[in-house]
Specification:
With 323 residues, the chain is α/β, with parallel strands linked by helices. The chain is 40% helix and 15% strand. Helix 5 runs parallel beside helix 6 and helix 9 runs parallel beside helix 10.
């Protein structure tokens, strides 16, 4: 049974993918892989609709973790100044602007190992205020303690982002101040609180194809898989340990998007960090491979992102429309 047939039969979402099976997808001829991904995509989604989210850094810099890709780590000399948590009014103004520009989800990120309870009170107020604007809400705050996910849910949080980043066997080469099991602990808290899970990873950090497939396998076997799966291409930030990482082959990135779509049919697969460096043609291939969500706006935390006007022109050229 092909993947597309399994989807039509209603069994694809029950499949427990292994890393070896996903690696076999990567080894298909490029056009065959995209054909399968597009078949799966059309069974679950409108192929010409893209959901748009905006991401705001509500607390920048000074993070105690040593994630090798991140300019916000206090352990890296990336030239980033530590900033205090934004006021609720500043966040609401940014959310209003995002909504006016067509975003349907507003994501708020804070550079913490995890939030202190006093800081969480302010984030709860942000979530409640943004939700009142009619936007979906998402936060990424690091690792959560017992009871914090329930507080965020009560405030009106729709999604919690906490990426696995990379495969377990490669994790220690990127991050040493915590392990992947810590991330799963937070994801379990989020799911138990009834909050949608936004969880993906970063590719292009020097990992092997096997590591990329192992990451996708971890995501695909979650019960259920994440509702939102951001696939980030490394943005090599000066001053970080991965500043000189060699760029990933663009076709390999598209293969990663396609494999994510095939193995997680119902999830929103988000084309995330790295779009600033992508041509319109490469982004079009990613949409063809099953990406149906993007971050929208001129900044992703501390990295540049394509301007909204460029995205609007691209959507018009492709005949695509926002969710």
């Amino acid at each position: 049974m092909t993947v597309a047939t399994a989807v039509r039969a209603g069994t694809a979402t029950l499949r427990k993918w292994t890393a070896a099976e996903i690696e076999a997808l990567f080894e298909l001829p490029f056009s065959d892989l995209l054909f399968q991904a597009q078949q799966v995509h059309r069974q679950h989604h409108d192929a010409n609709v893209v959901q748009r989210s905006t991401l705001l850094s509500v607390k920048t810099g000074g993070c105690s973790e040593d994630c090798g890709y991140c300019s916000q780590s206090a352990r890296h000399d990336a030239g980033l100044e530590r900033e205090a948590l934004l006021d609720v009014g500043e966040v609401v103004a940014a959310a209003e602007a995002a909504k006016a520009n067509g975003a349907s989800r507003f994501c708020m990120g804070a550079a913490w190992r995890g939030p202190k309870d006093k800081d969480l009170e302010k984030v709860e107020a942000m979530v409640t205020a943004v939700k009142a604007l009619g936007l979906e809400t998402c936060v990424t705050l690091g690792m959560l303690k017992d009871g914090q996910a329930e507080r965020l849910k009560a405030a009106g949080l729709d999604y919690y982002n906490h990426n696995l980043d990379t495969a377990p066997e490669f994790y220690g080469q990127v991050i040493t101040t915590h392990n992947q099991a810590d991330r799963f602990d937070t994801l379990d808290k989020v799911r138990a609180a009834g909050i949608n899970v936004c969880c993906g990873g970063i590719v292009g950090m020097g990992e092997s194809r096997r590591a990329r497939t192992a990451l996708l396998a971890e995501l695909a076997v979650m019960e259920p898989p994440p509702e939102s799966v951001p696939i980030n291409q490394l943005v090599a930030m000066p001053g970080t340990p991965l500043a000189d990482a060699p760029p990933l082959d663009p076709f390999e990135f598209v293969r990663t998007i396609a494999a994510a779509r095939i193995t997680m049919p119902a999830s929103m697969v988000r084309l995330s960090a790295g779009r600033q460096e992508m041509s319109d043609e490469l982004q079009a291939l990613c949409f063809l491979a099953g990406a149906n969500s993007i971050f929208y706006g001129d900044k992703l935390l501390t990295a540049s992102n394509p301007e909204a006007s460029r995205d609007a022109r691209l959507f018009a050229r492709l005949g695509m429309r926002p969710a």
